[in-house]
Amino acid sequence: AQSVTQLGSHVSVSEGALVLLRCNYSSSVPPYLFWYVQYPNQGLQLLLKYTSAATLVKGINGFEAEFKKSETSFHLTKPSAHMSDAAEYFCAVVAGGTSYGKLTFGQGTILTVHP
Amino acid sequence: DAGITQSPRHKVTETGTPVTLRCHQTENHRYMYWYRQDPGHGLRLIHYSYGVKDTDKGEVSDGYSVSRSKTEDFLLTLESATSSQTSVYFCAISDGDTGELFFGEGSRLTVL
């Protein structure tokens, strides 16, 4: 079985500062890992994904994440926060094979960006 | 944007009443999912479908049933709603089993 832990339910940064959202996973098979973003009163949308190719993955809106197998981590970063980045972010994992694409989500991290 | 429509978007009901939420897609995707979102829990899978009439349980399926008689429609039914089922429900679709999902805008259900 796989699981995801997001460290920190709330993260607050100043505009222009580094964004770092932490995610650790547990999986008995090589995982596919994802970050999804949810803006207020909307559904989730895919930010980026890791599917066993390059360990550094670039996504939309300047976000990127690095898969570190030794640390079982998949932290999300952005060099310079923008006000529009304020949202809730979810890390998720799916096992390969016959998993039917079922995602297991972390608890979510709410990102607040201060002017 | 993926063509996913959830209905109703908002519903208030009383304990013990049946409720059906509908998810309709225009993308002809094979996989469909129902998740619920609750503060502190992220999203949890209720049921999923991997084809017409092919469905299975997720991690929080108790009290819920689903049906998929057509590719485009996936119905979630609460046979007898309880207050613990107050939540925001999201439908998602995928054309493969890689975990890359497209989500609807959600249905907010309040059970009094």
Describe this structure in words.
The complex is a heterodimer of chains A (115) and B (112). Chain A is 0% helix and 56% strand. Chain A is built from no helices and 11 strands. Chain A has strands spanning 3-7, 10-14, 19-26, 31-38, 44-50, 56-58, 64-68, 73-78, 87-95, 104-105, 109-114. In chain A, strands 2, 4, 5, 9, 10 and 11 form a 6-stranded mixed beta sheet that branches. A 5-stranded antiparallel beta sheet of chain A has the order 1-3-8-7-6, with no helix packed on it. In chain A, a hairpin with a 5-residue loop joins strand 4 (31-38) and strand 5. Chain A is globular, with a radius of gyration of 14 Å. The termini of chain A are far apart. With 112 residues, chain B is an all-beta fold. In chain B, the strands form 2 sheets. In chain B, strands 2, 4, 5, 6, 9, 10 and 11 form a 7-stranded mixed beta sheet that branches. Chain B has a 4-stranded antiparallel beta sheet with strand order 1-3-8-7, with no helix packed on it. The termini of chain B are far apart. The mean pLDDT of chain B is 95. Classes of the chains: A mainly beta (115), B mainly beta (112). Chains A and B meet through strand 5, strand 9 and strand 10 of A and strand 4, strand 5 and strand 9 of B.
